[in-house]
Amino acid sequence: MGLSNSKVLTFMNENALINDVSLRFGVIGAGQKGNKDADIFAGYTYANGKQIYPSLAVNFSKNDMLHLKNIPVEDRIHFEDFRGAARTPSLVVENFDPQLNPNADKMRNQLIEAMERKFMDVDHLFICAGAGGGFGTGFISLVLSLIKEQFFPVPITLLLSSPFDDFTEMSNAILLLAEIKEFIELQNELFSPGQEKPLGSVILTDNKKLFNDFTTKKENRLNSSTLISWKDEGNDAIISTIHEANLIPANFGSDNSTYDPSDFIKIVQLSGGFLSIHKASIEAPYESNTLNSKMRNSIQLGYFSCGHDYETATMYGGFVLRPSSASIFKDVKTEQTIKQVISEFNDTAQGKYGDPIWFDEYAVVYTIFSGMTLPSRVVEMTIEYDEMLEKQKQVKNKDIELNISGVMESVKQSTFNPYQKRGANKFGGGASGGFGGSVFNRKQENQIEEEVASTTEEISEPNNRFGSNSDDTKPTNVWNKIQNRK
Fold first, then answer.
1. Domain extents for the chain?
2. I need a surface site. Which of 25, 84, 294, 443 has the fewest CB within 10 A?
3. CB 69 within 8 A of CB 168
4. Is the pTM of this model over 0.90?
5. Can you tell me which residues the record assigns to a coiled coil (predicted)?
6. pLDDT tens sequence across 43-71
7. Phi/psi at 235 (nearest 5 deg)?
8. Mutual orientation of helices 261-269 and 230-251 as an angle, nearest 10°?
9. Domain 7-220+227-380 carries which CATH code?
């Protein structure tokens, strides 16, 4: 039996109800956070035991991938000679750039070969990462560039999480999300609203909210000694909800209003903006005011809540997974309640709501908004970052007066004086020789590249499904229209 990391999935797996999906997608997990997300997706199976989502973990650090449970070693892509990215996204971007690294084509081909092996039968890719880390952040930035090279033959959804308590990670995340915002704006200029987008959607979750939510849950539990990992439980809640939203349209029909798999595909692939999925469980007797409050709370306070501006959504969708005996969901008042809640958040978006039937004794409401602009949480994060930066400046500006006259007198009386200037150093040459070149001195890159380029073999590029190698069968690259834009 496949992974059951939610109550809904436990029921579905125990009753062998999972036989199809709406959208066949593969998963790439980049960096430690992304690796964990991909590992969860990799654990989901059909009723016959076959894996649903082919998954790869990619990283500069082997150790980040040691404890994955569902992704085998051959699907953990580590790039040779790297031992992590040290929260420095530029290391990833630059090392995949053929103009800066003579081995970049070799690294790209390593990625292409793995993708060709795993993703030949997928129609979409989810790429997961923590926005803020080194490899994950750099890889997502790289993905945006590769999309413009037509590297991916299928649309992409980015699944990202935002940091909240680390200065460097917040800086990385803010820059990445600004880059994504600019990418979406350019994409909107090139593709019409009803057209499939290369970047189909972006899902952003807020680690600060997840941390606070699970802290409150632990405080409210009767047995407060029960261990809660907010990261593990948060990952399960987010990914299981995405999985359920993909499963339900393909496995459950309705005698009233069906939400088709094509409806789900449309909302994931066509909007090109930020997407959120909200879930709420409802027990009988399913009163309208309960449905109203549960839906509203799931949208405003659920795990996908991230300061989204729902008024900017271009599409909405969703369904109530209901017991066959709950005919109240066919009632006009119930339908009116659902439409009322949707219109409170967005009264212009186009979409559809269904009511598929299952055989458990409670109902589950799923509401999806897509095509939204950058969430306000990112703006809040920039304010928090500026406040942290100001505090750092204040701390550094504190000056402590120190009277060292007595200490210096003692030193002068000693035959050993560490403050005396000495002659030539025994190690590392003379004192006047300077500190030497730094590995971070990028002014040396062009010189180094010229020295090693002559010894680097040219790597042949096979005609693959993935990769940006050109062939006559590929359509004209629309991104060339903005290539020279500053």
1. 7-220+227-380
2. 443
3. no
4. no
5. none
6. 999 999 999 999 999 999 999 999 999 99
7. -60, -45
8. 130
9. 3.40.50.1440
